[in-house]
Amino acid sequence: MCEPAGDILVFLTGEWEIEDACWNINKKINNLGDNVGPVQVVPLYSTLPLAMQLKVFEPGPASLRGGPPGRKIVVSTNIAETSLTIDAPESLMRALEVLNYLGALDDESNLTTLGDIMSEFPLDPQMSKMLVISSKHNCSNETATIAAMLSAPNCFLRPREAQKAADEAKTRFGHIDGDHLTLLNVYHA
């Protein structure tokens, strides 16, 4: 209400904090009634379905006949800022260490046979290695399913107005051994 006309971008740290902020902003706007122009509050985080993410690029609401200007408020994680705070050579060294630890690079930073196979997958190195070695543990089908579920948008939505019901629905798929097997249960269901 105190800012000049224009859209607002708010950076927060995580999905639940973003959803909570959006809910609180909408509640505050509804309580103010006609004292503010039309406002559209849009969350943005990586596990949000693509259609919801694309709302960020839609035009904001127009002002109502002579009333206060319309405004869009985007509440997002600040991924770009965190990537800029890490020095590039440091990031490169960390990446090489991870690839060496996974066996994709040897001690001279040359690609190993395993690393060559891993590079064929359009996935993070950890997930690529998981898929490659799964056949040695007779769990290739399950591993491929889990990799696919981890690569897709989050299948568990938790809207503010139905959090309890969403949590109850999620518990039906829960597995005592963790989230990966919970995702496997979702796929099989």
Automatic annotation (TrEMBL):
Residues 94-184 form the Helicase-associated domain. The keyword Hydrolase applies. One of its GO terms (molecular function) is hydrolase activity. Keywords: ATP-binding, Helicase, Hydrolase, mRNA processing, mRNA splicing, Nucleotide-binding. SUPFAM superfamilies: P-loop containing nucleoside triphosphate hydrolases. It catalyses: ATP + H2O = ADP + phosphate + H(+). It holds the Pfam family HA2_C. InterPro entries: HA2_WH, Helicase-assoc_dom, P-loop_NTPase. The keyword Protein biosynthesis does not apply. One of its GO terms (biological process) is RNA splicing. SMART domains: HA2 (SM00847). Gene3D superfamilies: 1.20.120.1080. Its EC number is 3.6.4.13. PANTHER family: ATP-DEPENDENT RNA HELICASE (PTHR18934), ATP-DEPENDENT RNA HELICASE DHX15 HOMOLOG (PTHR18934:SF109). This is RNA helicase.
